[in-house]
Write a structure and sequence with these properties.
The structure is a homodimer of 362-residue chains. With 362 residues, chain A is α/β, with parallel strands linked by helices. The first copy, chain A, folds into 2 domains: 241 residues, Type I PLP-dependent aspartate aminotransferase-like (Major domain) (Aspartate Aminotransferase, domain 2, 3-Layer(aba) Sandwich); 101 residues, Alpha-Beta Complex (Aspartate Aminotransferase, domain 1), CATH 3.90.1150. Chain A contains 9 helices and 14 strands. In chain A, the strands form 4 sheets. Chain A has a 7-stranded mixed sheet. In chain A, strands 11-12-14 form a 3-stranded antiparallel sheet, covered by helices on one side. The mean pLDDT of chain A is 97. Chains A and B meet through helix 1, helix 3 and helix 6 of A and helix 1, helix 3 and helix 6 of B. Chains A, B: Keywords: Amino-acid biosynthesis, Aminotransferase, Cytoplasm, Pyridoxal phosphate, Pyridoxine biosynthesis, Serine biosynthesis, Transferase. Chains A, B: Its main location: cytoplasm. Chains A, B: Homodimer.
């Protein structure tokens, strides 16, 4: 097959320049005679790789010195347990905003270890909006306030960073919009993100945690689920997933070359704008159900007015080199994930195809 | 640097043919137009990769149908918590054999969730032997009996598979000798292995578990630490580390081409034999402290009679393309890890270097 544009929600497209570099040095990293996959995680070569990855990430997000950066495994799903186990301390309850599939899973797992106060939910309208902050029923004694900045399945994104009450750290699952726009890390107690959308290959979870939140783990917390253990060991308590860290490091360097997070945010806005415009100007052939102000710039969900055309749409798209456009099985319809690494040419090709397809089937 | 022989204990050398194949298809797997790193874990391409990896592993080890194969994350260190959490059931205690660094960590973590009966320990003689099985103080009511078939740091390997009492499943940390010799899977309740020695890159843990041991997890077990959850979802409960699974699959195919596990065992015996012979015939210039019958065929530890020569040995070895020979910081001395992927030429080059070095410095 010729070049394709890959709209997978994750694992997802990676920058071509990053993959080309990985390919060129796969057998021999920087004259070491070894593949990165073959290097001891405690050797000086890999220590350099992980150090540079952390420094580049710190530079991209202006991460202050009182935050630790951890390179972990297990994805957001493991974080759902690690958060209450590590941050509950002597509090009794945690606050969670419910905006869709992933927040629901975060709530379900947190309930195994803590009371959960759902501060707000948009389930009443099928998660097509973010509840207005002034309606949230917050608990001033909550151990933390958790939200999911971008719901990958629903295509819903927070256009704002919530405020947090004094003494209630803000915790964010940023898996699917990490590094896609500027954030002020100091507003957060903890940020986490599975790598397989905007960071690199799967098998890596990045956690950014304010140091004063370490050391509060429940006594039964498995050692490998204790943030403090990983922080004390600079993510080398045991062997980390070294190759995903290496690729993430190449992505961070690529992002810096592209002008950093602000430059990506501008491109992401442009890409999402093109797609939503194509949907909204299709005279109802395509529709996006999400309320306009909360539409994700990462995962664009849309439906065809005539659902019986969906299979034809997907197979015709594939013939045009546009792949992985099927919506999540929980929701149906279509989804185009357009993370940082999706070039604008890919979005333009998709828009062109959608317009042609609508013309042919209207 | 020219070609090197990499004796790292893990992450470790991978077969050159595997890395070359990974390199050739890094940008485009089998005409899909995508890198494996970019594929949805639920797409048909990756499902094929993971299915073939499992089938090839089943074929290599003759894994019966009543055993599940799980591809997990977190390494052996996470298994140390998962084992008692999943297998204790309504029992009160677990049996563990203490043969060195890794069994000690397994004991320490298990004690967080269960009473631990150390059935035998070779700590009295610095873990230089495996205690004779007829001296083990077994508990017939133990939830399981755990041992570490190869102690990577100490260079100690079980030359036998322990027997287990009726109703007490045998559990083995096979991280550093998995696939290096034939085993009878039916003797085990559960086998686990971190990938970064004999399987592939780090970030993957293989678990082989008998189905009747599933479903016994303690109520507080984090969802991601529950074997049943991963078994029910065929290791796709959440996004696994896809690239390490792909590389492991290539390694399994390579092993089949090499003649399978028995062929590797013969080569491994030959390689280890060459090295131990070089040590034992050095008139004391090199010594291996481990009792001969328990010496590992994977990790050959040795010391120089004159410790002040160690740095010179390492730097001269590196000049000769022989790298990562430094022993674990907990033990000092030297360690040559010669997993399946280390070619016999690498061992011969090391033996030649050791003999020359001894001649020059005797």
């Amino acid at each position: 097959m010729a070049k394709v544009y890959n709209f997978s929600a994750g694992p997802a497209v990676l920058p071509h320049a990053v993959l080309a570099e990985a390919q060129s040095e796969l057998l021999d990293w920087h004259g070491s005679g070894m593949s990165v996959m073959e290097m001891s995680h405690r050797g000086k070569e890999f220590m350099q790789i992980v150090h540079e990855a952390e420094q580049d990430l710190r530079s991209l997000l202006h991460i202050p010195n009182n935050y630790k950066v951890l390179f972990l495994q297990g994805g957001a799903s493991l974080q759902f347990a690690m958060l209450p186990l590590n941050l509950l301390g002597d509090k009794k309850s945690v606050d969670i905003v419910d905006t869709g599939h992933w927040s629901k899973l975060a709530i379900k797992e947190a309930r195994r270890y803590s009371a959960v106060n759902v501060v707000a939910s948009s389930e009443d309208r099928h998660y097509l909006y973010v509840p207005a902050e002034d309606t949230w029923q917050r608990d001033p004694n909550a151990a933390y306030l958790h939200y999911t900045s971008n719901e990958t399945i629903g295509g819903l994104q927070f256009p704002f960073t919530p405020s947090s009450l004094p003494g209630v750290p803000l915790v964010c699952d940023m898996s699917s919009d990490f590094l896609s726009r500027e954030i002020d890390v100091t507003q957060f107690g903890l940020i986490y993100a599975g790598a397989q959308k905007n960071i690199g290959p799967s098998g890596l979870t990045v956690v950014i945690v304010r140091e004063d939140l370490l050391g509060l783990a429940q006594p039964d917390t498995p050692t490998m689920l204790n943030y403090q253990v990983h922080a004390d060991a600079d993510s080398m308590y045991n062997t980390p997933g070294t190759y995903p860290i290496y690729i993430a490091g190449l992505v961070f360097k690529w992002l810096k070359e592209q002008g950093g997070v602000n430059a990506m945010a501008a491109r992401n806005a442009e890409k999402a704008g093109l797609l939503y415009h194509a949907i909204d100007s299709s005279n109802g052939f395509y529709t996006c159900p999400v309320d306009p102000e909360f539409r994700s710039k990462m995962n664009i969900v849309f439906r065809l007015k005539d659902e019986s055309l969906e299979e034809t749409f997907l197979s015709e798209a594939k013939k045009n080199g546009l792949v992985q456009l099927k919506g999540h099985r929980a929701l149906g319809g279509m989804r185009a994930s357009i993370y940082n690494a999706m070039p604008i040419e890919g979005v333009k090709a998709l828009v062109h195809f959608m317009q042609e397809f609508a013309r042919q089937h209207s």
